[in-house]
Amino acid sequence: MTQERLRLVRERLRSFPDFPVPGVLFHDISPLLKDPAAFRALLDLLEDHLRASFPQIDFIAGECLDSRGFLIGPSLAQRLGIGFVLVRKKGKLPGPTESVSYDLEYGKAELEIQSDAVEPGQKVVIVDDLLATGGTMCAAYELMKRLKAEVLECLVVIELKFLKGSEKLKSIPFYSLLQYD
After folding, report:
1. Which of 98, 124, 127, 128 is nearest to 111 (CA)?
2. In 3D, which of 93, 162, 113, 95 has the Cα closest to residue 134?
3. Is the dihedral of CA 77, 78, 82, 84 positive or negative?
4. pLDDT digit string (tens) for 40-94?
5. Which residues are marked as active site?
6. For 53, what's the count of Cα atoms within 13 Å in the CB-facing half-sphere?
7. What tens digit of pLDDT does each residue of 143-177 get?
8. What average pLDDT does this structure show over 125-132?
9. What is d(CA 120, CA 166) in angstroms, rounded to the nearest whole number?
């Protein structure tokens, strides 16, 4: 059943060469999101992994720079019966925030989280659709650490192994459902 689900998820991904800049192969999950059976299979796989790995999770934290990763986190949190915490581009969240700057594949960016998003010691899994160079994931991890959360794992659907982003995460627990070289 797991292999069947993985096959369904993989079949619903597509690639676009030279997007958003020449030399980049963009892995698009839009067809996966359009297909209810494939999206359900994705969530089943991620839910099974988290339930088998962690007896308690307080929150899923989602990197909300674009809508793709944002769509996975809340759905997964709902299935687990836990809350979802927003990690956004600077200036998108009201109230007091913590922020951190980081390097992207093609520039710089800044992420922030509301200062009261999690309490010290709460157990968090950071979820995104893709890990490339690791800058965004490291920034989200840094924000969680500033709030004194316990990051159980950084979880992505797709890992671009050739960019070595998981090496940046060093001792941070990391899991990717699909890997591309």
Report:
1. 98
2. 162
3. positive
4. 999 999 999 999 999 999 999 987 655 566 789 999 999 999 999 999 989 999 9
5. 68, 105
6. 18
7. 999 999 999 999 999 999 998 999 999 889 999 99
8. 92
9. 25
| Tokens describing residue 121 | 């010691």
Residue 17: which CATH number? 3.40.50.2020
* Sequential DSSP letters for 57-113: --EEEEE-SSHHHHHHHHHHHHHHT-EEEEEEETTSS-SSEEEEEEEETTEEEEEEE
Q: How many domains does the chain have?
A: 1
Tokens of 54: 């962690």
Q: Three-state SS for 41? A: helix
- Which distant-in-sequence residues (6+ apart) come within 8 Å of 77 by Cβ? 59, 60, 83, 84
pLDDT at 25: 86
What pLDDT, on a 0 to 100 scale, did the predictor assign at position 46? 98
Q: CA-CA distance, 77 to 66, in Å (whole number)? A: 18
Check if the beta carbon of residue 102 is closer than 8 Å to that of residue 138: yes
The secondary element (H helix, E strand) that includes residue 95 is none
Residue span of the structural domain in which 163 resides: 1-179
